[in-house]
Amino acid sequence: MNVTLSEVSPRDGLQPIKQFVPTETKIALVRALHAAGIRRMEVGSFVSPKAIPQMADTGEVLQAAKQLDGLECTVLVPNRRGFDAAIAAGADRLGLFMSLTEGHNQANLNRSRQASFDDLSSIVRDAPPGQKIRFNLSCTFHCPFEGVVDEAEALSWVERVAALNPEMEISLCDTTGNAAPDQVRRLMRQAIEHFGNRFAYHGHDTYGLGLANMAAAWEAGCRVFDAGSGGIGGCPYAPGATGNTAMEDAVWMFHRMGVETGVNWQRLLEAADLAAGIAGAMPGGRVRGVPGARAAA
Amino acid sequence: MNVTLSEVSPRDGLQPIKQFVPTETKIALVRALHAAGIRRMEVGSFVSPKAIPQMADTGEVLQAAKQLDGLECTVLVPNRRGFDAAIAAGADRLGLFMSLTEGHNQANLNRSRQASFDDLSSIVRDAPPGQKIRFNLSCTFHCPFEGVVDEAEALSWVERVAALNPEMEISLCDTTGNAAPDQVRRLMRQAIEHFGNRFAYHGHDTYGLGLANMAAAWEAGCRVFDAGSGGIGGCPYAPGATGNTAMEDAVWMFHRMGVETGVNWQRLLEAADLAAGIAGAMPGGRVRGVPGARAAA
């Protein structure tokens, strides 16, 4: 493959749904995505079930996902307790996260960036040798509280994170969907130039810029992308807020660019339809509704 | 302004509507777009009213549009008769068009590319000195009959067109919405490098790639873009076929990129709502439905 696509609907797409999605539905989605050729997936989060009941069954979903051939399973790890649980459960990759902006880190994680960074640093340090880690930097480009992020400020945090571990994957995340293509291209290019080609891009399609930003990150050299089948996600309390850039939109674009994804188009549409049909899910994305795209081989 | 946005909904967006859109509605749309700060517009087509009844009142719409301060009015000119009519009516810019692929030119214009090129060449030659001309090359990237267009083939036609007149603007048109960002970037970059920075990009959003392709053309140096307010257009017989990339989506992206458009955001939304609400129009685009975008200044 020329690109690594990491599917995030089982975690990022389902998490906002209020009613509990049955574990068997989650596992069916994971299996459908794997059957479509997806080989990396964020399957859940080892977070407190009190804080996010929807993720209470991450252990079970992970065990089912680990049965699937060649699937690399990521779980989110918010803290030391989640870290211990993820290691014990045999997660292939740990997904750490903090916000690049103080305002969003405080609102989302209820602590300072420095406190988050210190804790995550110790987790990175204590991870077993060879353990794969993804460090997600939320609001790398735009923050709902602070607006457009200064690029030098963003790069300085990227530098701190990069110094923790030379092997670690780092994701530049457009959490609000309000990044701009030129901004993504510049920052991604500088990040790769200074800290090696180990960056991922995670974007949302809130303002219709999901693919434009993804294409910009690709052009800057990025080769790992998050996307969510069915484009599910968003926030039930913010009409118009959308989920991740739809995996099927991303795959359509990459296939048109001649990039090998390893994904079977028709099977991906089946998985995306499955995701979009989950009770309470808020679907997004574009090509799923375009007859000319649905009919394609 | 750092970019020239050419509004195409009054022509490209209204043309597919079966029932006749009243002339006063067309003029109201043109005025609303001008009030939003749009300063270039494709207002109609001097085509046979038998062939396209919707454009029968282009003369009247053009006269009303010419009253508006600083508005450059383009009319499409399919042939010598349309050329004479456009010159007599005082159109600011003539919009010539042919397809880059033989299959689409035959299907759309019922003649060979060579025959179209020869006729348009004579029109370019006979245009009054200083007359502004836009030469539109349909299906520059992808053809519904021939698939992806070979880039060397595309460039060879661009070269022939460029040689007709060194001042003439040339538009590379993604007629099917199936161009890919890397393809747009490469071709636009080469066109500008070899034939000067006088290219425009015209795209459709059929597969959700409208903004991605526009951003790619911008990055390649293109500074003139077509877009249609309300994203209206498409084909009533092809569900899912969509119109031009929405002007409001384009403006949202350019404003996020810090590019001055001269457009007033809230007034543009008003004009886009007006376009989208025209009886029979098939609206498209994204940000018009996003509360966070609608509320922006």
TrEMBL record, chains A, B:
Alphabetical keyword list: Lyase, Metal-binding
Listed GO MF terms: lyase activity
Domain (Pyruvate carboxyltransferase) ranges: 3-269
InterPro entries according to UniProt: Aldolase_TIM, HMGL, PYR_CT
Pfam family, one: HMGL-like
Family assignment from sequence similarity: Belongs to the HMG-CoA lyase family.
Protein name in UniProt: Hydroxymethylglutaryl-CoA lyase
